Structure formats: C-alpha cells, structure tokens
Amino acid sequence: MPNNYEQYLTTSEFAKFCGVTKFTLFHYDEIGILKPEIVDDKGYRFYSIQQLSTYDIITVLKQVGTPLKEIKGYLENPDTASFMEILAQKKIQLDDELKKIKRMQQLLQSAIDVTNYAIQAPVALPRVAICEEVYLIVANISQENSNRERIQKIYEQYHFCEEHNIFIALAVGFIVNKKHIEDGQYHHPEYFFCITDRMYDCTFLRIKPAGKYAIIDHKGPRELISDSYEKLKAYIAQNHLEIAGDAYEYEIFNSLAGGNPENYITEIAVAVE
Q1: What residues contact residue 46 under an 8 Å CB cut-off, 6+ apart?
Q2: Which residues of the chain have pLDDT under 50?
Q3: Taking the model in full, what pTM does it have?
Q4: Nearest to 156 by CA among 198, 201, 195, 204
Q5: Beta partners for 243?
Q6: Residues 110-161 pLDDT 10s
Q7: What domains appear along the chain, each with residue ranges and CATH number?
Q8: C-alpha–C-alpha distance, residues 126 and 47, integer Å
Q9: HSE-up (13 A, CA, CB side) for residue 149
C-alpha cells in the first residue's frame, strides 16, 4: 500500500467533487457499489481520480431510474453492450413516463378550462351557437342494459383508454337521442361519454358533428334536468328552429369540483336547423 496519498482524494474531497455528502459515499461503500481504493491503518478512506468516472456512471444510471442493485451488478461485470442495453431500456421507460406526464398536463388544463367556463356559464339562458366538431369516447348505456352492465361498460371504456394511451378529459356527459328528446324522455341517455383530444382508431370513438346547436346550462342535479330541456325546446320552437340531432349533456361542474349537487352545472347542446 503506498505511503503517499497525495494523488488520492479524501472522502470529503471526493464528495465535494461529486456534489454529494460523505454519508452517500459511506452508503455506497457499505453496499459495495463504490468502495474507496484505499483504507489506511486509521480507517481513513481514499478515492482515486479514476473513481470519479465510476461515480459518473452510477449517477447516470440512477438518474434514469436504475436500482442500486442493478447498478452494482453492472459495475461488477462492466461492458459496453450491457451499458447500452440498460440505457435503451430506461429510455423506453422514460418515454412512457413522459407520455403519462403529458396526459396529466392535458387533464389538468382541461379541468381548469372547464371549471373557468362553469364559473361564468349563463345558467338557464337558452342560446344558439355554432360549435366545432368534438371527439368523444363513448360507452353504450341504453335502457336494455342493467345498472351493473352500464357501470361495467363505462369502466371498460376507461381501462381501454389507459391501455392505449388515449387522452380523456375530466368533462364527461351523456348523449340523449333525438327521438327521446322529442318524446320528453330526457332521463334515458343512450351513451355515456368522455371528451378526447383527437380522432382515435377505435370502436369507442364517436364524433359530435360540427354545426348549429341550441344550448342551455342546467344548474342542479340531473334528476331535475327535465325543466331545462323543456325550456330549451320552447326556445327552439319560438325561434322557428327544428331539432336536427341528438342532445349532448356536458357535466362541466360536478362532484369533482364541488360536493353540493345543487351547484352542479350541465351544458345541454341540441343539434338544430
């Protein structure tokens, strides 16, 4: 063992160069991932300059989420092919995480946008608007299905979107078909839907057509939505319009934003001509 340690770094010096505490190095020594090159008779640890490169490798692998146990295994049998394989695997994992983060950012922004709209919504005031095309992910909940079957279909929809990285916004709602609107059967929706960001190639996709819609914002629980439908239908008749398609109910302010159903806001949009 050499008596002159000037070409070596003390634990404090090595930790300072690496930007970590001495306790991190003590831990790495204890688990055998990075041992000091020299330990003198008094127990002082010394690291070589070359070990800075080893520490850099540990840092890179840690930053991409490699467990210390795997890092130790690589350092015991280092080779370029293994290093590249680890990095390639971690890149795939990070790409997946990035997709999840982007989806969460979209989800949060959609929640902010919908809530801001709900705060300013002209409640109970019918109006006509030209609406753009909207992409929906739907679950068929027609009356032929039991409550259990409807819930199952809704959860199948959610799981499908998660598995296929399909973005769905927090805004959800129901589709009531044209005949039910005309017959006053407002409590018999045909589809449950979530809004998505683009056209996906899947059987759950449905498109709300662009065009003219008569709209009213209903405040309160859905159980009392009939009055808003009747008010909207009266407005349609008074303005010499005709119902031309289904109704789309958007729950723009629901239990996610407030606990009192009396404050829920649902936008009803009925296609007209």
Answers
A1: 5, 8, 9, 10, 11, 36, 37, 38, 39, 40
A2: 1
A3: 0.64
A4: 204
A5: 272
A6: 778 777 777 777 889 999 999 999 999 998 887 677 778 888 888 888 888 8
A7: 8-78 (1.10.1660.10), 101-272 (3.20.80.10)
A8: 77
A9: 8
